[in-house]
Design brief:
14 helices; seven-stranded mixed β-sheet; 2 domains; Aspartate Aminotransferase, domain 2; four-stranded antiparallel β-sheet; Aspartate Aminotransferase, domain 1; alpha/beta; 42% helix; globular
């Protein structure tokens, strides 16, 4: 009786696969897995449980996942140069909650980035932090809205007994002053937590400052944005073993039971891809973001933070008030096969949340399918034709994207063959 429903679900999946592989995907919080990482999803591991640590499980039959989890943990530790790692959270927000639940005491004062200043919802009253305290205050920002005002932060800390600071953002163009803030935290016994969800891959690829080296106590992150893994979360730290035990219990049983083993297997493959190609990839991501920012500016768009070079990450923020606002622009672009999201800009009032001034652009996914600086200029030209000239460019966008179907920076055979063909030949002496 319900077989037709099954067929409809299968049809929708096929349509999604075809559609999104022929759109210009610029959502800053997404990326694509390689074919080899995707192929191991849906294996027998998707049926199984593995509570606890490798070798110390509460279930039998976990020998294979024990080896995989041990391997991915060891190699992620090597990649990030950290003492401790927790790979069991099933998302970045779950990783946040595993930490927040252990460190934020009832009614403690927590300092975060505001929503309009780029802070993530899990840092706020409606999210994970709000489950543990209502005493949430915002980092002061410099006049441009994209940098923390360290001097004013010091002033606030002289008056307010802050216990936890949470750095990192969803709209994240430039590095935060982690070193300066970490020094204050040591002096005042404040725990500094850094949410690296968006820029984890740029940290791993050495194109963004390492918050652990700069003094953060704990780093949380998701693994599917600039880090091109499956959708999961991790926690990193260099703290003492006795302190790390808090986070261990926060991850299990505090915020998860079984931890979605099939996506952990995919993360393992993506980790090895990042160890092999990550620095090259991260470098191209930042180059692409800067190039697209410059090209959009030259096309007449109000790209934010021009005086600072537009960006130092994978993201751009563009004020599109003159084109109808973020919601309107995002809808128009979607209808033209260009996918991104509306976004509050730092000076926007919260009342504008349903149609803010800005859009947020991320170049990491298009970088992974092989686009470079030349292609960023093509994307800017499509933006201009669509949003300023009022042209329909959906077919052109689709045809353009059709040329980029190989997942780069991977161990997929088609990419390795392409890489081999394009490798410069040695010149004989």
């Amino acid at each position: 009786m319900y077989e037709k429903n099954v067929e409809r679900i299968e049809q929708l999946v096929q349509e999604q696969n075809s559609w999104r592989s022929h759109t210009i995907n610029l959502i800053a919080s997404e990326n694509v897995l390689s074919k080899r990482a995707r192929q191991v999803m849906g294996s027998d591991f998707c049926h199984r449980y593995a509570e606890g640590h490798p070798g110390e499980r509460y279930y039998q039959g976990t020998e294979k996942i024990d080896e995989i989890e041990t391997r991915v943990s060891q190699h992620l530790k090597a990649l990030f140069g950290c003492r401790h790692i927790e790979v069991r959270p099933i998302s970045g927000t779950v990783a946040n909650d595993a930490v927040f639940s252990r460190y934020i005491k009832s009614n403690a004062v927590v300092m975060v980035n505001s929503t309009s200043g780029g802070g993530h919802i899990s840092h706020h009253r409606q999210g994970s932090v709000g489950k543990y305290t209502e005493n949430i205050i915002n980092f002061p920002l410099t006049r441009d809205g994209y940098h923390i005002d360290v001097k004013e932060t010091v002033n606030i800390l002289s008056k307010v007994p802050v216990k936890i600071m949470i750095m990192g953002k969803s709209l994240y163009l430039f590095p935060d002053p982690v070193k300066e803030i970490a020094e204050l935290c040591r002096e005042l016994d404040i725990t500094l937590i850094y949410d690296a969800a968006h820029i984890l891959g740029l940290i791993a690829g050495k194109r963004f400052p390492d918050p652990l080296k700069d003094g953060a106590h704990i780093v949380t992150a998701s693994t599917h944005k600039t880090f091109f893994g499956s959708q999961r979360g991790i926690v990193l730290s260099n703290m003492k073993d006795s302190e790390w035990a808090l986070i261990d219990k926060g991850a299990f049983p505090g915020s998860s039971s079984n931890h979605h083993l099939d996506t952990l297997v995919s993360l393992a493959i993506s980790t090895y891809e990042f160890l092999e190609f990550g620095e090259e990839y991260a470098d191209q991501v930042v180059k692409n973001a800067k190039t697209l920012g410059q090209a959009l500016d030259e096309a007449g768009f109000k790209v934010e933070a021009k005086e600072f070079g537009f960006t130092e990450s994978h993201q751009l923020a563009v004020n599109v008030s003159e084109q109808g606002g973020g919601d309107e622009v995002a809808r128009i672009l979607k209808d033209n096969n260009i996918i991104l999201n509306m976004n509050l800009l730092p000076l926007d009032p919260l009342e504008r949340v349903s149609n803010p001034s800005g859009i947020r652009i991320g170049v990491q996914e298009m970088t992974r399918v092989g686009m470079k600086e030349k292609e960023m200029k093509t994307i800017a030209a499509l933006f201009k034709r669509c949003l300023m000239n009022g042209e329909y460019v959906g077919d052109d966008a689709k045809a353009f994207r059709a040329q980029y179907q190989v997942i780069h920076y991977s161990f997929d055979p088609d990419y390795l063959e392409l890489r081999s063909k394009n490798k410069p030949k040695a010149v004989a002496n």
